[in-house]
Amino acid sequence: MPAQRPGNTLAAGHSGVTGETVSALPTVEVPDRPAPARPEEPREVHVGEPLPKRRRYGGETYFKSLTTVGGSAVLAIIAAIALFLIIEAVPALSANKENFFTFTKWSPNALNDAHFGIASLAFGTILSAAIALLVAVPIALGIALYLSHYAHRRVATILGFAIDLLAAVPSVVFGLWGREFFAVPVQDLSIWLNKYLGWFPLFASDGRFGHSVLLGSLVLAIMILPIVTSLSREVFMQTPREHEEAAMALGATKWEVIRTAVLPYGRPGIVASVMLGLGRALGETIALAMTLGSSFVISWSVVEPGGNTIAANIANAFGEANDQGRSALIASGLVLFAITLIVNMTARAIVRRRKRFLAAATT
Amino acid sequence: MAKRIEADNVTAYYGSFKAIEGVNMVIERKSVTALIGPSGCGKSTFLRSINRMHEVIPNGRVEGTISVDGQNIYDKDVDVTAVRRMIGMVFQRPNPFPTMSIFDNVVAGLKLVGVRRKGELQVAAEKALRGANLWEEVKDRLDKPGAGLSGGQQQRLCIARAIAVEPQVVLMDEPCSALDPISTLAIEDLIGELKDSYTIVIVTHNMQQAARVSDRTAFFSLEKTGDPGRLVEYDETQKIFTNPGEKRTEDYITGRFG
Ligand SMILES: Nc1ncnc2c1ncn2[C@@H]1O[C@H](COP(=O)(O)OP(=O)(O)OP(=O)(O)O)[C@@H](O)[C@H]1O
Ligand SMILES: [Mg+2]
């Protein structure tokens, strides 16, 4: 039945009051239900009446302009932030006596003698985020699969709630905990790794252990675990039942169902959740400022004291920075912005490639 | 290939709800058996009991025994995945794996049992697609997504996927209900051919279809909503449609009921 405009109501009235009417359906006796046609909801369409006019200023139009404004506002804000960062960064960058991209140290405060570069910070940012992902993603996906496909419903609810709680812990608490408590077992782990795998550059050390990239990365891993877990769990639970049953009917075991139906279906969602985790890892500030060793060298060793990230360095250096120092820190923020942007765009490209295959299916 | 199925006093539950009760039935090898009956009488439930797919539904439970060539598939130490490989299933809605190509869909079951060699998979895929009357239509686009086929082609793809693992029995739950008359005919013809190698059980709401494709027909019904469904009559299709033994069967197939 086509929707009726309120204007038709009076004219239409009940069946056959005015003009010709086309009866919708032959009336069927329905014993225990009220008669379907109520006076205020006419069930007839008048033959020969013009179609209702399109409304020029309906809710549709308002909603459309609202969404357009919202969309452009986001773009405008991003552009404004980028512009702000660039303008603020210029003074320090022009005063810099070193190549900003290759120099590793950070002493930007001296007025006519500024030496600073992003190299070691960018390296540390990417290294610690990468290790955090490497550790967190397999664990998170494992937990997510356990919650969505293996665990008893009650266990899944409780565990899911606990993981959401973990997401609610403030990062400064993670930083304190990492620094004061978690550092001890990580140091033991570092010594062990160095002893047995010391030939591998990541675990090389000159005998000193402590606030290292490993500590920061592991704290970071715990921090991004909840996001990746709860998002990918959500994705896994949305796997259409019929795909899982198709796999089961072929004689798939639970793990095979996951491999043939759940994981392929959830791939774009997994990528998205990992990217959110990575975004958090790249931008995490205070927990890393508290757990990393704040050094300015490019070193592959994750067990030696050291490590630094762009965000952590901003937190550490902001306090004693003068105008020029702040300008230099903003320049480093610009680099972080660019890294995050590149990561996000790569993720989108991966998701899009998948979508193209699926889109080919529907055309 | 093709096996004889014996259902003995099969009762199936969803939680505490008893969906079918006391079904006894012998399904002959290399025959087509149609399950008919009003909506909700438990046709799908019974069909899914035959390959132990009923129990994948939370709280789904089956009592009684179903034997395939004398072996009870509900025995404690029977490997469920082996049962499901032996008894393939085609669902009401075509459900190819959406992220897989046509080829990968067909060989999905083979890959599960560990067939990896490309040549072997290709031979098997062609055989299954030919068996499902789909080969000519897709042979030039095997690497395209399976979900990109028409509904009827998708359903035949699912049939190809089911027969690629060379099961003994193929179960079909209203395989034509989402299809146009042409695709329906194509699948009915296919069922006629598959009968030479497989035991087929098909659920259908289409009386003509049941009459056309099946050798034997089972009529399920239930007294009133909330009651479990029961097998009312089971006989040669010819007999069910011309001279049913039960009044209820006659009422149903002549459209006076349900
Ligand atoms: N997942 C489920 N959970 C609970 N009850 C169910 C479930 N699936 C089916 N039932 C119930 O079991 C009974 C039998 O259902 P079944 O799907 O086997 O009927 P059917 O004969 O296949 O019907 P149709 O012809 O409509 O497909 C119905 O009463 C139905 O409501
Ligand atoms: Mg059904």
Determine the most extensive contact between two protein chains: A-B, 25 and 31 residues
What is the distance, rounded to the nearest whole angstrom, between the alpha carbons of the first and last residues of chain B?
37 Å
What is the CATH fold-level name of the domain at 5-96 and 168-253 in chain B?
Answer: Rossmann fold
Number of strands of chain B: 10
Q: Going by CATH, what is the homologous superfamily of the domain at 5-96 and 168-253 in chain B?
A: P-loop containing nucleotide triphosphate hydrolases
Report strand % of chain A.
under 5%
Dominant shape of chain B:
globular
Q: Strand sequence of the main sheet of chain A, in spatial order?
A: 1-2
Task: Please give the CATH architecture of the largest domain in chain A.
Answer: Orthogonal Bundle
Q: State the oligomer.
A: heterodimer
The percentage helix of chain B is: 25-40%
Count of helical regions of chain A: 11
Q: What characterizes the major β-sheet of chain A?
A: 2 strands, antiparallel
Decide which structural class fits the backbone of chain B: alpha/beta
Structural class of chain A: mainly alpha
CATH architecture of the domain at 5-96 and 168-253 in chain B: 3-Layer(aba) Sandwich
Domain ABC transmembrane type-1 (chain A): 122-347
GO molecular function, one term (chain A): phosphate transmembrane transporter activity
Function (chain A): Part of the binding-protein-dependent transport system for phosphate; probably responsible for the translocation of the substrate across the membrane.
Organism (chain A): Phytomonospora endophytica
Could you walk me through the main structural features you see in this protein, from its secondary elements to its overall organization?
The complex is a heterodimer of chains A (363) and B (258). By secondary structure, chain A is an all-alpha fold. Chain A folds into 2 domains: 1-56, no CATH class; 115-362, MetI-like (MetI-like fold, Orthogonal Bundle), CATH 1.10.3720. Chain A has helices at 8-12, 59-95, 119-150, 153-168, 171-197, 213-237, 241-249, 254-283, 286-291, 310-317, 323-362, and strands spanning 21-22, 45-46, 106-107, 115-116. In chain A, strands 1-2 form a two-stranded antiparallel ribbon. In chain A, helix 4 packs across helix 6 and helix 5 packs across helix 6 (213-237). Residues 1-39 of chain A have low confidence and may be disordered. Chain B is an alpha/beta fold. Chain B has a domain at 5-96 and 168-253: Rossmann fold (3-Layer(aba) Sandwich), CATH 3.40.50.300. Chain B has helices at 43-50, 80-86, 102-112, 118-131, 135-138, 151-164, 181-194, 207-213, 237-242, 247-253, and strands at 5-14, 17-27, 32-36, 60-68, 71-72, 87-90, 169-173, 199-203, 216-221, 230-236. A 6-stranded mixed beta sheet of chain B has the order 6-7-8-3-9-10, with helices on both faces. In chain B, strands 2-1-4-5 form a 4-stranded antiparallel beta sheet, with helices on one face. In chain B, a hairpin with a 2-residue loop joins strand 4 (60-68) and strand 5 (71-72). The N and C termini of chain B lie far apart (37 Å). The relative contact order of chain B is 0.19. The A-B interface holds A 240, 242-243, 245-253, 256, 260-261, 264-265, 267, 354, 357-358, 360-363 and B 51, 53, 56, 81-85, 88-89, 91, 93, 95-100, 108-109, 112-113, 144-148, 158, 161-162, 165.
